[in-house]
Each structure stands twice: as C-alpha cells, then as structure tokens.
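Succinylglutamate desuccinylase structure dump, as promised
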Amino acid sequence: FTDTVEAQRVAVLEQTVTAFFNDSPAQVRRYHYDLHTAIRPSLLPTFALFPYQTHDYDAVMLDSLKAAELDALVYHNAVGRTFTHFSSAQFQAASSTLELGHAKPFGQNDLAAFAAINHVLRTVVSEQALPIRQKQAIQTFRVVDSIIKTEDDFQLNLADSAPNFSVFETDAVIALQQGKPYVTAPDQVRILFPNTQVKKGLRAGLILTEVHA
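structure tokens r here:
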C-alpha cells in the first residue's frame, strides 16, 4: 500500500505531527483531537474512540469530550494502526478520534451541529473552564472483539443500512462464513463500523460491550 495516494497522505500527516511535537517543549501536555464525520448513520450520533494504552486516559480530554456533548466513548482493546494510536504511542499525546455525526456532501453540513466541539476545543486551547454538560450522561463502551473477514462469502447478520451501535442480543449470530455462524454474541453487544466489503484479512466491524459505572 506504500504507493497509494492514501499511504502518501498518511506519511505526510505523520511527518507533520512528528515535526510539531518535536518542536514543542517536552514538559507540555500534548493533545490530539482527530475530527471526522461518519458515512454510516449511528444510534449514538457523536462519539469518541480512544486508542489502546496501558496508562490512565487523560482526565482533561475526558472532561472536554463530555463537555462537548458527545453521546458515547469507545475504548479500543488492542494496538491499532490509527492516526490517534500513532500520536499516543509515539508522543504520549492524549488522543481521540471523534465522529461528529453523519457525513454530508462538501458544503452541505450544518455547521451549527459542531458548535459544542468548536467551543470546547477553543476552551481547551485557551485553558479556560469547560462548559457544563447539558445532555444526559455519556455512555461508555469497550471493544471486546474485532470481526475479521477471511472468506469471500462472509456476511454480517444485519442490513447494509444498519446504523453504528446496532444491538445484538445474547447468543445472536453476528456474522456468517462458509455457511456457518462465524461470530456469536456472548452477551448483549453492539457493532461499530460494520462493513462486508473489506478485503479478506481486514476488519469488518468492532464488537462493543457497554461499561456501566
């Protein structure tokens, strides 16, 4: 994949982040908010994903995401190849990938929908007090499994249009392969980023379980 446009773009982004953090004092707190909109609709429209790490997650970032009125937090359970994992692992930055609603054609997004995160990011940068959350308590999830497509006949047991955070009840068949159940829900779980069109060997979805306080 090293010759693709996407790979070249990744290299430029990583080089830019490397230069940015290398030019900053070592003692400063480092933050990386990677902002996206999602192609697929979602039962929980706005959410953040944290890269896997063995140390505690940064309290300021957690508080800022709650103040930004996000609906959910998702914690990865394994090392990944995401942009936020790169900044977290290489530079000890407090990092998160933010999905800020359903993507629309360029120029057609309602910018008012991003007002909360816009305000919070400006507040964090200027070291001001965070706004008080107005929505119900944020929901928390952990990744418990990754669904890997290994055969051409791989299928997910949900509609192509199913939203992120769709629910599978206990013992439900989540995926089929070679005509047999391939992944079964151990308990009530949700699925994130389902995609049957990925190439063999790649991830076709994340299985989540909710974490209750």
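DSSP finds four helices and eleven strands in the chain.
lmk if u need the other ones
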